[in-house]
């Protein structure tokens, strides 16, 4: 009897121990896999071009060099311009988009709004059936006439059905009685929304705002479609794309330095540009991560 | 209050829809949409004859199935293991690291892949040659790309996708866990008989929802990994989105591009309706309509 108890408790401990060990190993290794590629880019960006040519890309610089950063910062014009464009689009787009998403989500959650199901479906349907890329391209370039206009990047990212559904789910937790009593006190819908609902949904607004902002920050697709190379300053990720895919582009952007064209460290400059373009987001990200988690857990359950 | 949103979706989502009429004409720039000659189903015939439509459908669907199945399984594994860990800082740090790939742009993912795979300087060939093996020419070898793309996708989305499962485990009643421990269930039995069954509904619903998007491709991932015009890899890496993009931006063949999009939208729609019907049968409260 005692033996049986004894052996069972040992067995339990053993399986718990195995699960824990495997769990720590698995999660630890996977986390490492998520970190290492960034260190690879970082390490290569500090490696001299000759060492890259000899030994290839590596985590640890065999020959430490800040030459590529020097070139990037000596010709700050393009990258600073791209940064400013991206920051401007992100700030303006996020402010307007957030306000619209919040307003729409709130209105569609109002139980006394008779068209709410119809409009909800009208919005949701756009995720089921799309005109595809070609008509969208023609619409923006020929009918809205936004070729080479930053609005072509700003406007399409303002609203998304996914975020409106997320907002609806967030607003759901606010009792309808609050809206009703404010209405009895004679407040209009906009007053209620701006004075009551917005302050009560600050965490939701932070979450949705971050989703929109991240979308704008990483935006390169619409920029590539609608902003031609004639424009000097294009969003940051598109600038990075050009640096990665075009040696000529890198050489031209380094033209202001006193570097011979053939001496431009093409490979390490790609990495240095990537670090300069991505660094701020990665530094910022641990502080805002929890908002994203909240958004996903709320938005996952259908609003 | 909904007026701006309604206007937005009319302009950016509904106005382009009639543009799919392009699929039935032979579009040329001088005549514009309404004066170009009407050709009926010729564009579709062309896509079927060349075998393009079949290849694109196969690639898009197979990639998506691999993403959905492997992705969800890996996300569940990560969530279950995370739940077993007890060291607080380790949990926090690992979660932060695992979400990180989701927050960077597709452009940077392309660069990271190049860092690993480049023939001349890539880390992979660096390792291979130092072990005395032959370097591989990744960017001209179509056969290995499905693995590369699926692995990259899993690398990017597993941490992010595991959030839902992890939250679901968190909502599991502690009393049930305690009761099982009193009954003498060990860790493996607890995972097998309590945690996994608890995740089953979430898993099935997420699976069915993702199936609705089985004809939609992740353009950014494919475009940045494969490169804009690496024809050597099209056989295994060309999906609907990349094909339409080239039809528009490289070949200026608006009608062919629209024909593929129309086919994608109609079939995608049928798939979504079917998936939703399945969700309805499985769990009515989660169905979309």
CATH class of chain A: Mainly Alpha
The amount of beta strand of chain B, in percent, is under 5%
| Largest sheet report of chain A | none
Instruction: Give the terminus-to-terminus CA distance of chain B.
Output: 24 Å
CATH architecture of chain A: Orthogonal Bundle
Q: Which overall shape of chain A is indicated by the principal axes computed on the Cα atoms?
A: globular
Largest inter-chain contact set: A-B, 97 and 94 residues
Alpha plus pi helix count of chain B: 14
What's the domain count of chain A?
1
In short:
Chain A is mainly α and 303 residues long. In chain A, 75% of the residues lie in helices and 0% in strands.
Describe the structure.
The complex is a heterodimer of chains A (303) and B (289). Helices cover 75% and strands 0% of the residues of chain A. By secondary structure, chain A is an all-alpha fold. With 289 residues, chain B is mainly alpha-helical. Chain B is globular and about 80 Å long. Helix content of chain B is 69%, strand content 0%. Chain B has helices spanning 3-14, 32-35, 42-49, 52-84, 88-99, 106-117, 123-130, 145-170, 174-182, 187-211, 219-226, 234-237, 240-249, 254-282. Chains A and B meet through helix 1, helix 2, helix 4, helix 5 and helix 6 of A and helix 1, helix 4, helix 5, helix 6 and helix 7 of B.
Can you tag this structure with a few keywords?
heterodimer; A: 303 residues; mainly alpha; MetI-like fold; 15 helices; globular; disordered N terminus; B: 289 residues; 0% strand; Carbohydrate ABC transporter permease (chain A); transport (chain A); cell membrane (chain A); MetI-like_sf (chain A); MetI-like (chain A)
List the helices and strands and how they pair.
The complex is a heterodimer of chains A (303) and B (289).
Chain A: H1 2-45, H2 49-55, H3 67-74, H4 76-109, H5 116-128, H6 133-143, H7 151-154, H8 161-171, H9 176-184, H10 189-200, H11 202-217, H12 221-226, H13 236-245, H14 247-253, H15 266-300
Helix pairs in contact in A: 1-15, 3-15, 4-8, 4-11, 8-11, 8-15, 11-15, 13-15
Chain B: H1 3-14, H2 32-35, H3 42-49, H4 52-84, H5 88-99, H6 106-117, H7 123-130, H8 145-170, H9 174-182, H10 187-211, H11 219-226, H12 234-237, H13 240-249, H14 254-282
Helix pairs in contact in B: 4-8, 4-10, 5-8, 6-11, 8-10, 10-14, 13-14
Main location (chain A): membrane
Organism (chain A): Paenibacillus antri
GO cellular component, one term (chain A): plasma membrane
């Amino acid at each position: 009897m005692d033996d049986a108890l004894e052996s069972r408790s040992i067995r339990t401990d053993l399986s718990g121990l195995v699960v824990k060990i495997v769990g720590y190993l698995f999660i630890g290794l996977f986390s490492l896999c998520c970190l290492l590629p960034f260190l690879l880019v970082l390490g290569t960006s500090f490696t001299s071009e000759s060492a890259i040519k000899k030994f290839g890309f590596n985590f640890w610089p065999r020959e430490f060099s800040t030459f590529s950063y020097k070139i990037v910062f000596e010709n700050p014009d393009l990258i600073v311009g791209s940064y400013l464009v991206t920051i401007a689009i992100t700030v303006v787009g996020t402010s307007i988009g957030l306000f619209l998403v919040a307003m729409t989500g709130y209105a569609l959650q109002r139980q006394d709004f008779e068209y709410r199901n119809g409009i909800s479906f009208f919005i949701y349907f756009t995720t089921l059936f799309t005109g595809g890329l070609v008509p969208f391209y023609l619409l923006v370039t020929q009918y809205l006439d936004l070729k080479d206009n930053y609005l072509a990047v700003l406007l399409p990212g303002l609203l998304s059905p996914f975020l409106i559904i997320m907002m609806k789910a967030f607003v759901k937790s606010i009792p309808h009685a609050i809206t009703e009593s404010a209405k009895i006190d004679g407040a209009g819908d906009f007053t209620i929304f701006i004075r009551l609902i917005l302050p009560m949904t600050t965490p939701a607004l932070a979450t949705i705002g971050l989703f929109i902002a991240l979308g704008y920050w990483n935006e390169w697709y619409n920029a590539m479609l609608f902003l031609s190379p004639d424009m000097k300053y294009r969003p940051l990720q598109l600038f990075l794309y050009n640096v990665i895919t075009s040696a000529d582009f890198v050489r031209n952007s380094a033209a202001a330095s006193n570097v011979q064209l053939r001496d431009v460290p093409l490979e390490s400059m790609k990495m240095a540009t990537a670090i300069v373009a991505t660094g701020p987001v990665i530094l910022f990200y641990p502080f805002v991560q929890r908002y994203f988690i909240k958004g996903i857990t709320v938005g996952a359950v259908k609003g | 209050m909904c007026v701006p949103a309604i206007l937005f979706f009319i302009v950016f989502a509904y106005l382009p829809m009639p543009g799919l009429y392009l699929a039935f004409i032979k579009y040329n720039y001088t005549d514009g949409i309404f004066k170009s000659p009407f050709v009926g189903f010729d564009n579709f015939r062309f896509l079927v004859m060349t075998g393009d439509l079949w290849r694109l459908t196969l690639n898009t669907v197979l990639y998506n199935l691999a993403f959905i199945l492997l992705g969800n399984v890996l996300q569940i594994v990560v969530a279950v293991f995370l739940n077993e860990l007890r060291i607080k800082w380790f949990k926090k740090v690992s979660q932060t690291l695992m979400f990180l790939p989701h927050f960077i742009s597709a452009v940077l993912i392309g660069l990271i892949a190049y860092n690993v795979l480049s023939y001349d300087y890539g880390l992979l060939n660096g390792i291979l040659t130092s072990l005395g093996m032959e370097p591989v020419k990744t960017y001209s070898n179509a056969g290995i790309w499905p693995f590369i793309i699926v692995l990259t996708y899993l690398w990017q989305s597993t941490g992010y996708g595991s959030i839902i499962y992890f939250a679901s485990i968190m909502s599991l009643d502690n009393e049930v866990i305690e009761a099982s421990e009193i009954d003498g269930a060990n860790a493996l039995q607890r995972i097998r008989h309590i945690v996994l069954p608890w995740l089953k509904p979430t898993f099935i619903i997420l699976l069915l929802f993702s199936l609705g998007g089985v004809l939609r491709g992740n353009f950014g991932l494919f475009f940045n990994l494969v490169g804009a015009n690496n024809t050597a890899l099209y056989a295994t890496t060309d999906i609907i989105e990349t094909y339409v993009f080239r039809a528009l931006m490289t070949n200026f063949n608006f009608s062919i591009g629209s024909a593929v999009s129309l086919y994608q939208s109609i079939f995608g729609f049928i798939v979504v309706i079917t998936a939703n019907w399945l969700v309805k049968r499985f769990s009515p409260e989660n169905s979309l309509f």
